[in-house]
Amino acid sequence: MAVDKKAYIEALKREGWTVREVKLNHKDFPDIVTLNDVSAGTEGNVIEISPPSGSEVRILEDARFWMYLAGSPGTGEIGDKDDISIRKAVVFGEEIRIDSGIYSNFKQTDQEKIYRFVQPIKITASDKLLIKVTPSKAIDADYCKFGLDAILLSGKTVL
Amino acid sequence: MMDIEERNRLVGALVGPFVAKLTDKYVIQKYEADPTKRNYIRLGAGVVTSGLALLKETGRFYGMPRWLQYMAVTYGAENLAEATIGKEGLVLAEELGEPEAEISKLRKIVDTLRAENARLKAELKQKGAKTTASTKVSAPPAPVVKSAADFEKEMGMI
To answer: So what's the ipTM on this one?
Structure first.
């Protein structure tokens, strides 16, 4: 259910968080986002999102998510979206499958290649959001790109 | 279908001073020395401007090329123009091999919207309609104090 984003952010601020709406990506937030190589035919965490201690991440409904997964130059984009799944790993627990298959996780509209999260997700410092893929061709993290609308919480003070 | 004011606001954003500013800042000042890049940059200014306006109005990326979508998500609307028209946007566009057909399509979109804007402006002028946004004032919502956890529960956050 969609909520008033502004009111939600205000509530977070009232509770002592410093709140920033960010475009989460591996380049600007290397301490939060990790891109990994994945071998062909094996399942691997191509993208991991895990905030450092003292920080948290929120992904709201309809958050835009963009990724470009590729191997070495010239091999092209890895396009088999059916092999991609989103899971949340929690400490001392099994991975929670956010939903099955990328098409279930995201709404996709014609004429855009931006996915949108259907499920709002909270990622604390002890959690990890994992984008898993079983690629038909090897993925090289150096050639992958990623961007995501997110809310970054940090520096919570005791009020 | 959008009403005339709404459409005018949308297309007006495409051809206002922003394009002129971008063109001046990036094309004339930065790239005048390199004629091979001028057309591309000039088109980039139009594409970015139209993309931003559409993104702002609709939250969607109609017809935006793949590299531009990436730039939009990565840098945000505020910094998109600079990032796209700057060196990084060009490098990325080349890296992803943006097809000429896509560029032509986008050029057509920008041209169409400019023509539409001119038509709407003329139409409004003829009617003597106000070109500024409506000044309707709605009552402020009643304040409700909820905790962040309340919101998270309400939206089913996991």
So the answer is: 0.84
